[in-house]
Structure formats: structure tokens, C-alpha cells
């Protein structure tokens, strides 16, 4: 994580960088001097060395022989002294250069050394003054100085101003640069102001008014600050409201009271409030089905209880209903009502018919028919007529009752004839007779298909009895076939 640098820290770093640069510059200056010195020394040494190599040629110096031959070293050769001397330098100018450089270097070094010594001495003295108990003379001196300073400070206006400015500047600088000092100052200031605030009433009042004023001004002018303040206030209020139960209750009571008062005093507000609440309730009633149901139930219950318990209310209700009916029973309304009733009737009928026709009746019909069909097919053509001997279904025959056909006032001839029609050979008790035969006998005529009417089936001859089904088919006069629809 990168910590953001404060302005003071930035200033400090810049200052340090500047100091470093200055030091480097100084160093480079000194370096330049040193380089010059070294150059001079080198030149000198080279010349000295080359004096040697002038004597014995197998020398390993850096200067080329050409350089040596070019120069005139007669002066060098002339000197017998082997020691280092400035005479070997040929040019007077060069020698002077070297001399000057050396001098400057020496002087500079001396000066620097002197300065350093002096500074260290001063420091030492200061330290001794600070740590050791001050002498009497020193104390006197200080007192004197203080006196003088006070006098001048009190009398001389210009001096005073200068002094105050200076001190202010100094303190400001210190405050700006020194972190520890700044913190200390801040703490001290806070403490002192708090003390003053607590003890001095006038100061307190002044401070309060000043603060309020400044806050109001800031609130009015600075939009951002205003917003912040608002959110802060709201937050703190909600926090307090949520956490502090006592405050919560108090707030509630206060608000209620306030609202109540306002409601009673301010007519406009009252109306607004009423309208708003009505709207709210209506909105809720329309959108919330549960609420709607509850309200409806409640209203119904209330009305019912009132109607039951309060006689006058009931009478009123009844009166109201009668009046309403009377007042509203105009011909137009009558006609409308008739139409409505008619419509309702038709609708009911239609609905009933629909439901019966389509569902129940249809199904019932189907089931019934099926049942009938099943009943019918349960019995085959098992009933034989005793007159014609045909095998018939149940609906084609009726039970045979002797008294129906042979009455007492019949002639004996007639009786015999009718008895000959009825086949008495059958031994079965409850015998059947087909409807057509019975009709004919009732008319005292012989039925056309009666067995007596020469329709007796003779026995099959023995030759034909042996034939199988296929052979029977082949010789048959008629081919009976069935057609199923
Ligand atoms: Zn040499
Ligand atoms: Zn018959």
C-alpha cells in the first residue's frame, strides 16, 4: 500500500534533494580543483621521469620518443642535479599555472579546516552552556539582555513589529517543518482552549455564537457540506432512534403531540392529511386483496351487529330501503327490471338444458339403449309356436291360454276343428303361440302356416341321411344365405 505524502513531507524531500545537489556541485567544484592539481602533478612527474629516460634510453615511460625528440631538452640535460626541481619545466607559464593552482588549493583547504574547527568550538561552547549550570556572569548578561530587549520592545514600535513578525515567521516555519512540534502545539492549543471554554463564561458564549454563525454560513454557502451534514444528522438520529429506547419513546410522543396540535390548529394541513389518508386507504384497498377482504368482512359484521342490536337503526334501514324502492320504481326502471328477469330466466333455462342435454341425458340414453340391447340379445329364438312350430323370439309370441280360443258357447264341430289346429301332442305345460296364429284362430280360421295345413315335414329318406354337408349343399333346391347389415 502506498501512503500518500503530506505537503510538509514533500517540501522536506525537495529540500533534501536541493541540499544534495548543492553538495554535489560543491564536490564537483572541489573535484575540478583536484583534477587540475593531479594534472599539474602528472605533468611535473612526467617531465621528471622523462629526464631519466633521456639518460638511459630503455625506459618504459608513457611519453613517446617522438615527443622527446621534438622538444628541446637542453636545459634538462644541462642540469646535473637529479633531484626534483622546477627548473625542468621548460615553460615559465606552465610553472606559474601549477604554482597558482597549488596555492589556491592550499588556501582553500586551510580555510575549510579553520571553519570546521571554529564551528566545532562553537558547538562545544553551546553544549557547555546548555548542560552546565550557568555562571553568575552569564546570568547577569542574560538579565541585561532581557532588560534591554524589553525596553526596546516596549518603546520602539518598529522594532516590536519586526520582532513579532520574525517570531511569527519562525514559529510558522517550525510548525510547518517539525512534525513533533506541530503535534505538541496542537495538543497544547486544544487543552488551553478547552480550559478557557470551561472556565470563562463570556468566552464560551462568544465561541458558541461564533461557531453557530460559521456553521450556518457554511451550511448556506457550501452545498457539499450541507448534504454531508444532512446525511450525518439523519444517520445519527436513526441510530439514536434505534438504539436508545427512551429516546425512541420520547420521540414518538413528541411527534404524535406535534401532529395532533398541527392537525387541530392548521385547517389546511388537516384537509391535506385527510385526503392523503383516504387516498392511501383506497390504494391499499384496491391493491391488497387480503386487506380488502378483511375490510369487507369487518364492515359486514359491523352493519349486521348494528342492525340486530339497534332497533332504531333497523327501522331506519328498512325505511330507507322502502323509500329507495319507491323513489326509484319508475316505468323505465320497471321495464329494465323485467328485461333483466327475463334474461336471467332464459339464461338459467339455457344453462340447464345445456348441461342436461349435453352431458347427462346423452349418457343416460346411451346406457339405457345398451342395457335394452343386452336384455334383448340375452335370449335367442327359443320360443316355438304350438300351431305353426316356428322358432321365434319372445316378442313374437304370447303365452297360450286355452280359454282365449275355445269358449263354452261354441259348437262341438268348431271346438274339434280348433283343437285340431292346436297341436296337442306337445307335452310341455306352458306353451307359446305366435301372434299371427292366435289372431287367425280368434277369427275361427285356420292359420296359413299351421302344421295342420299340410306343412308337416316328412322324414328324410335313408339315402339322403348319409350325405355330408357339402353334398347336401350341392343337391339343395334353395340356397339360403344371410345378410348382416
Ligand atoms: Zn622515459
Ligand atoms: Zn304360429
From TrEMBL:
Where are the annotated segments for Disordered?
Answer: 198-239
Compositional bias segments (type: Basic and acidic residues): 198-230
Q: What's the domain of life for this entry?
A: Eukaryota
Task: State the protein's name.
Answer: Uncharacterized protein
Species of provenance: Adineta steineri
The taxonomy runs: Eukaryota, Metazoa, Spiralia, Gnathifera, Rotifera
Amino acid at each position: 500500500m502506498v501512503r500518500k505524502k503530506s505537503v510538509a513531507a514533500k517540501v522536506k524531500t525537495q529540500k533534501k534533494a536541493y541540499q544534495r545537489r548543492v553538495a554535489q556541485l560543491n564536490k564537483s567544484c572541489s573535484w575540478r580543483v583536484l583534477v587540475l592539481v593531479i594534472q599539474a602533478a602528472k605533468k611535473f612527474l612526467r617531465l621528471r621521469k622523462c629526464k631519466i629516460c633521456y639518460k638511459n634510453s630503455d625506459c618504459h615511460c608513457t611519453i613517446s620518443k617522438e615527443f622527446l625528440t621534438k622538444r628541446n631538452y637542453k636545459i634538462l640535460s644541462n642540469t646535473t642535479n637529479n633531484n626534483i626541481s622546477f627548473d625542468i619545466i621548460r615553460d615559465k607559464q606552465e610553472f606559474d599555472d601549477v604554482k597558482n593552482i597549488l596555492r589556491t588549493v592550499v588556501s582553500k583547504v586551510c580555510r575549510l579546516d579553520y571553519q570546521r574547527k571554529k564551528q566545532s568550538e562553537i558547538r562545544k561552547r553551546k553544549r557547555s552552556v546548555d548542560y552546565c549550570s550557568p555562571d553568575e556572569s552569564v546570568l547577569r548578561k542574560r538579565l541585561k539582555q532581557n532588560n534591554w530587549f524589553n525596553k526596546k520592545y516596549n518603546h520602539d514600535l518598529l522594532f516590536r513589529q519586526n520582532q513579532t513578525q520574525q517570531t511569527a515567521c519562525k514559529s510558522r516555519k517550525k510548525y510547518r517543518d517539525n512534525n513533533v512540534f506541530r503535534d505538541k502545539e496542537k495538543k497544547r492549543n486544544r487543552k488551553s482552549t478547552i480550559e478557557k471554554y470551561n472556565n470563562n463564561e463570556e468566552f464560551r458564549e462568544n465561541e458558541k455564537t461564533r461557531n453557530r454563525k460559521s456553521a450556518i454560513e457554511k451550511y448556506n454557502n457550501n452545498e457539499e457540506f450541507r448534504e454531508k451534514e444532512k446525511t450525518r444528522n439523519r444517520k445519527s438520529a436513526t441510530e439514536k432512534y434505534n438504539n436508545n429506547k427512551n429516546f425512541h419513546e420520547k420521540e414518538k410522543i413528541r411527534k404524535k403531540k406535534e401532529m395532533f396540535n398541527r392537525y387541530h390548529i392548521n385547517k389546511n394541513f388537516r384537509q391535506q392529511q385527510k385526503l392523503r389518508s383516504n387516498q392511501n386507504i383506497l390504494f391499499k384497498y384496491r391493491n391488497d386483496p387480503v386487506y380488502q377482504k378483511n375490510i369487507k368482512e369487518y364492515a359486514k359484521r359491523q352493519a349486521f351487529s348494528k342492525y340486530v342490536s339497534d332497533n332504531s337503526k333497523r327501522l331506519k334501514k328498512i325505511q330507507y330501503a322502502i323509500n329507495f324502492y319507491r323513489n326509484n320504481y319508475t316505468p323505465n326502471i320497471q321495464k329494465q327490471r323485467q328485461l333483466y328477469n327475463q334474461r336471467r330466466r332464459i339464461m338459467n333455462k339455457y344453462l340447464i338444458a345445456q348441461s342436461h342435454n349435453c352431458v347427462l341425458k346423452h349418457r343416460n340414453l346411451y346406457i339405457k339403449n345398451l342395457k335394452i340391447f343386452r336384455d334383448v340379445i340375452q335370449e335367442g329364438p327359443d320360443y316355438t309356436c304350438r300351431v305353426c312350430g316356428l322358432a321365434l323370439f319372445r316378442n313374437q309370441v304370447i303365452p297360450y291360454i286355452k280359454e282365449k280360443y275355445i269358449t263354452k258357447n261354441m259348437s262341438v264341430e268348431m271346438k274339434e276343428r280348433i283343437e285340431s289346429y292346436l297341436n296337442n301332442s306337445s307335452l310341455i305345460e306352458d306353451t307359446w303361440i305366435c301372434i299371427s296364429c292366435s289372431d287367425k284362430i280368434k277369427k275361427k280360421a285356420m292359420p296359413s302356416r299351421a302344421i295342420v295345413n299340410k306343412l308337416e315335414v316328412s322324414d328324410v329318406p335313408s339315402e339322403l341321411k348319409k350325405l355330408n354337408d357339402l353334398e347336401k349343399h350341392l343337391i339343395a333346391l334353395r340356397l339360403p344365405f344371410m345378410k348382416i347389415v
